[in-house]
Amino acid sequence: MDKDNTVIWFPASANLPVEIIGRRVYCRRDMLRWECSQAQADMRVFIERMNVVLAERYRPTATATPDGTENVRKAAEVLGQVTQWAELNRPARNDFMVVPAFGKFHAMLRSKSHDLLVRMYGRPAEHRTVELPAYLEKSFGDADTMEYGPEHEISFCMFLIALFKLHHLTCADEHYVVSVLFD
């Protein structure tokens, strides 16, 4: 962990910094720090690239199969499993049961997401998937306050960026990241 307790280094074939997700911009100096961070650079490159892909995708000449690639299928399967967990914990018409149901969903997400990701992407990558469950979990809102906002959307983008960095998604998958995974 670095001196600010914001980046954790895990042993891997390449150094992969994992930034802890959370709101850290409280004043102008914090914003400057964010703008100079690797996470912000990754996010900017990812969003710019996805914008280019999206522009190409919806040109009349763009052709792509609707199913995507094997990599996209795996990522979509992960998201499909999370959707099943959410459905499993859906409250039965009682509004007062929403908070416990959302808490159960998040507990299930927290306890099962690492195993799901290892099962999907294999044991050799297990030590490199430590960041993926954290980003995936944070993508679905705050378990305690039931809030959902930009930091959760950014977490989903960081989940996808991590899949690219770990080569679980490649350049060949870019069209499908926009049209399948974000859809």
UniProtKB/TrEMBL annotation:
GO-annotated molecular function: peptidyl-prolyl cis-trans isomerase activity; protein tyrosine phosphatase activator activity
Protein name: Serine/threonine-protein phosphatase 2A activator
InterPro entries per UniProt: Phstyr_phstse_ac, PTPA_sf
Function: PPIases accelerate the folding of proteins. It catalyzes the cis-trans isomerization of proline imidic peptide bonds in oligopeptides.
Family to which this protein belongs: Belongs to the PTPA-type PPIase family.
Gene Ontology CC annotations of this record: cytoplasm; nucleus; protein phosphatase type 2A complex
Catalytic activity: [protein]-peptidylproline (omega=180) = [protein]-peptidylproline (omega=0)
Organism of provenance: Cinara cedri
Keyword Cytoplasm set for record: yes
Compartment(s) of residence: Cytoplasm
Keyword annotations from UniProtKB, A to Z: Cytoplasm, Isomerase, Rotamase
Gene Ontology terms: biological process: mitotic spindle organization
Entry EC number(s): 5.2.1.8
